[in-house]
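User: Predict the full complex structure for these chains.
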Amino acid sequence: MPVADRNGTRVWRRRTQAQSLFHWAIWLVGTAIFVYCWQMISEATTWFFVWDAPRISADIWTRATPPRWEYVTQLGEPIWDTLNIATLGTIIAICLAVPVAFLAARNTTPSVLFVRPIALLVIVSSRSINSLIWALLLIAIIGPGILSGVMAIAIRSIGFCAKLLYEAIEEIDENQVEAIEATGARPWQVMTYGIVPQILPAFAGIAVFRWDINIRESTVLGLVGAGGIGLQLQASLNVLAWPQVSLILVVILAAVVVSEWVSAKVRGAII
Amino acid sequence: MSVELNNVLGTRWRKPPLIQRAWLRRLLWIGFFVYLVAAVATIEVNWLRVYEGLDRGLLFILAFASPDFLSRSTDIWNGMVESIVMTVAASVAGIAISIPIGLGAARNIAPLPVYLICRGIVAISRALQEIIVAILLVAIFGFGPLAGFLTLSFATIGFLSKLLAEDIESMDRVQAEAIKASGSNWLQWINYGVQPQVMPRLIGLSMYRLDINFRESAILGLVGAGGIGATLNTAFDRYEYDTAAAILILIIVIVMALEYISGIIRARVQ
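Assistant: Here is the predicted structure of the two-chain assembly.
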């Protein structure tokens, strides 16, 4: 037990001298890094605008309230598009994620040395790039529109779904697989009767969870031109129509809350 | 022999369906297909445009084989440094703010009014997306990394406070009570009774959030909030696919490195 000697009496301490020195050094380095980063940000900032910020935000607030409620009639179709982007994107992503997950899981991959690293690379590349960037890229290739949005959401979701799914596959009970194998089942039958029933609840949970995230992401895809309610947001921002912007934000918030509620209910029913 | 068994004998076994009621199963399938058709019908595809774009798509895929790090190297370097600086600063600030809010959002520690306020902050932060917050903050604070820093800090608060509060709520009460029984004040109670229990998970979550913040910082540039996104957007606009490929490769490599490091740290603290 580390103790400190203070005026002849021994007092309990949490750490030994060396430990606290080490902790102190880590804190010092961490603080130095933070201060350095803050200085870089501070240099790149026009402080005049920052001091002016309270006035500007009050100004924006007075312009944005009350929201232009009549505009909501024009938002029906964009919201439907947004829902479609998220749902179709999720469906495509799941169809593609299942084979990738089976190739990436240690216990089902055909080759740990060659196929697994490729599958893992697919997963990490899809996961590390945001759907907005995928959308930018697809818009440059196949033109603006809903299709780019669906594809961007799909590509982005493959990695997420495949990662969670292959972790679920790696955690299955091998005894059941062995029991199916012992009946003389072919590899495909082992897959459908030994592995799939075990991962089905996890699979459904992942799909609904990702659908919820995709609703959020598809609301902003329109900012770069990939369809959905983001297009209206961008258009309203461009003409500084703040009452419309605030209404769109309210609609987006409602969509996010509803999708989160739906996904929580469905996941609660499955698991 | 029972009638049921007689009926089954001689027929092949069939997998029982997931949904027992036949009408419900069929209704769900029909509904699903109707939706699918309706949804696909809304997608207008200009096939000529897609066909023309395929060449560009091929060029882009080829660009990954020969990424161009050099011709825009200063832009890439500055953008990357700005992204990393924003990520680090925002993670530190976000974690520092989310600890008190996380404590306040845990029902077993905080009184009801504090709990409701903190949960409200968490809910707002989680419901607003980074890019929308960034648009508003750029409008308020002007272009530059400060808006990105504030956006990422704000997003970190919602994520980390919620998970921290859930962890505190599921902690072992006995340890915290033992500290309280020794006559500690509130701060000592938190420091010796609560903090050691949640520290491993807090470190793990913070590393994970650092990783997310870096990924998000890559898109904040699209709306003028600093970082590599602006460089990437310009590269796409100019159809400089080799530069864009170089930036994407850098992002992937940094994310992979961060994931690897955070995996090591998480394995060590848990």
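Residues 187-221 of chain A form the longest helix (35 residues).
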